[in-house]
Amino acid sequence: MRHVSAFEFFFSFYGLLLGFSIAELVSGFARMIHERQNVRFGWLTPLLALFLAIDMITFWNQAWTIFRFAPYNMFLLTVGLVVAGVFYMSATLVFPRSVTPGASLDEHFWRHRRLVLLGVLAANWIVATLFLANGAISGELAQLNLPLVFWLGLTLFTLACLVAALAPWRGVVAAALVVLLVYQGNNIARAGWTLAEAGGWRMLQQATPDTTQ
């Protein structure tokens, strides 16, 4: 009988909460599509929703990278609850719960952007701090020899989130969100290129001989 690994047990909890966050974000967008005759969309809320969706995908990927070999531990479950809980709260704030005729999503954005963006930034820094601290304790941080692009990316992400959350000017906020999406898009493109360079993956496996007869 196969035993469940520590990562599988951890991710059954962490992944479930992240999944709720993604479902909340998608259902909020679907709700706005249903109410499209009564809503003025604008650009800010769709940009924020896309940024948040991609960032949650990034956390799904980071869970595999950072926690794959972690032991079962109450502290890690608590960190997972905090991080995923912040994402869920942020996801519930991106779109309004109810819509009145003529409602503007841009107005909703300006009311809630700080909670959403500062929450996302806090979640990212919690995981980044855990990653760097654990790497320093285990001695693996020196082996990783993190490239300059890692530190530049973390700095760019942090500054762009702060600008989008705190700047009072619409154009500056929109530009910061675009910068965040370009940063994320570059990471996705690099991952896709790595996959292509590896020759993709096998979809047709040789059939296993039937030994039951």
List keywords for this structure.
213 residues; mainly alpha; two-stranded parallel sheet; 2 strands; 75% helix; globular
Q: How would you explain this protein's 3D organization?
A:
By secondary structure, this protein is an all-alpha fold. The protein has a two-stranded parallel ribbon with strand order 1-2. The protein is globular. It has seven helices and two strands; from the N terminus they run αβααβαααα. The chain has one domain (6-196). Helix 2 (44-67) packs antiparallel against helix 3 (74-94) and helix 2 (44-67) runs parallel beside helix 4.
H and E string: HEHHEHHHH
Determine the structural class based on helices, strands and strand pairing.
mainly alpha
In what order do the strands lie side by side in the largest sheet? 1-2
Helix content: over 70%
Distance between the termini: 23 Å
Q: What profile does the largest beta sheet have?
A: 2 strands, parallel
Using only C-alpha atoms, the radius of gyration works out to 20 Å
Number of helices: 7
User: Number of folding domains?
Assistant: 1
Low-confidence stretches: none
Give the CA-based shape.
globular
Average of pLDDT: 88
Strand count: 2
Estimate what percentage of residues fall within beta strands: under 5%
